Amino acid sequence: MTTIIDYYFSPASGYAYLGHETLMRLARESGATVRFRPADIDRICREALLDQPPRPEDSVEDRRRWARLRGLHMAPMPMHHPVDSRLAARVIIAAGDLGLDQSEVALACMRGTWAEGRNIADPGDLAEAMHQIDLPGCRLMALAERNEIRDKADDIALEIVQREAVVSPTYMIGSERFLGQDRLPAMAETLHRNAA
User: Fold this and answer.
1) Which member of 117, 153, 165, 192 lies 3.0 to 4.6 Å from 8 by CB, making a disulfide possible if both were Cys?
2) What string of H, E and C letters represents the secondary structure of the chain?
3) Buried-state track 49-59, b at ≥16 Cβ within 10 A, e below 16
4) How far is CA 57 from CA 40, 115, 137, 153, in A?
């Protein structure tokens, strides 16, 4: 039976960006399937009056350290941050509906925010990020505005509250929760155990 990793993240999250490629590599190596659950987690928490667990390591220096470790270019503080990431989340959902690579779309959103100075709340900027990876940006923008995609985004928001996935990123395997990309080694252990 294939292991499912539920991947809760904000498309504007620096820590999701830092962990994204490692997550995808771990999934490939273990034969797990990643189920993408993008949302503007900060907004969801504010609207639901939820407290996010404090992350004392959330700092420019900590991100710089992780970026060096992961070999990623990352701006200390992006030009467009914080940013409303709801449109980008819906674009990632829409990509899944079209059978496109959601991993590439999510990475384009995060890289756009943290390495390319893009405003992922702007449809033109976001469409350009999709064109850059040879995906139909205009089609994705149009689909992202449809009611069925908005409904799916609302379902994910509800799931985040119910499953207490209020840190971006949060990875879940069944009921086991891994809060933050720094928990990927612990998740790798679970994936290895499940594959055995």
Assistant:
1) 165
2) CCCEEEEEECCCCHHHHHHHHHHHHHHHHHCCEEEEEECCHHHHHHHCCCCCCCCCCCCHHHHHHHHHHHCCCCCCCCCCCCCCCHHHHHHHHHHHHCCCCHHHHHHHHHHHHHCCCCCCCCHHHHHHHHHHCCCCHHHHHHHHCCHHHHHHHHHHHHHHHHCCCCCCCEEEECCEEEECHHHHHHHHHHHHHHHC
3) eeeeeeeeeee
4) 21, 21, 35, 29
Which of 79, 162, 163 lies closest to 122, judged by CA?
79
Give the position of tokens 């395997």: 173
Residue showing tokens 């990643």: 34
Contact 170, 8 (CB under 8 A): yes
> What pTM value is reported for the model?
0.94
Task: Indicate whether 57 pLDDT > 60.
Answer: no
Structure-model confidence comparison of residues 75 and 58, the more confident one: 75
